[in-house]
Amino acid sequence: MKRVTGLGGLFFKARDPKALAAWYERHLGMKVEEWGGVVFRWADDPAAANGTTIWSPFAADTGYFAPSTSPFMVNFRVADLHALLAALRAEGCQVEDKVDESEYGKFGWVIDPDGNKLELWEPPAGR
């Protein structure tokens, strides 16, 4: 079974996410979307032409990374979310019960041994 297939995104806490995103846009040329993050398209890899990696600052007081107290969360692309979550549970990993499914794909979470929350993302077909 394939497990992680790529980096889906980097999410981190910021005192002022909008101001920080504006700084990155102005000084580093990153195109910040209306929702506050940047989408990097994998244009250099023809085999993964539809692939993306997300960069996104979150409010410093966000609860989205809970139960982790880390100021960041890494999102990994996966091939089969439900199979991977089952395998991780069987291996004794701390896996959250919640799974989100939407037009953006399937999302699940696991906590690493240092207490960092990792988001696992199975993109929708064709992405």
TrEMBL record:
InterPro entries: Anthracycline_SecMetBiosynth (IPR052164), Glyas_Bleomycin-R_OHBP_Dase (IPR029068), Glyoxalase_6 (IPR041581), VOC_core (IPR037523). Residues 6-123 form the VOC domain. It comes from the Bacteria. PROSITE patterns: VOC (PS51819). It holds the Pfam family Glyoxalase_6. PANTHER family: GLYOXALASE (PTHR33993:SF5), GLYOXALASE-RELATED (PTHR33993). This is VOC family protein.
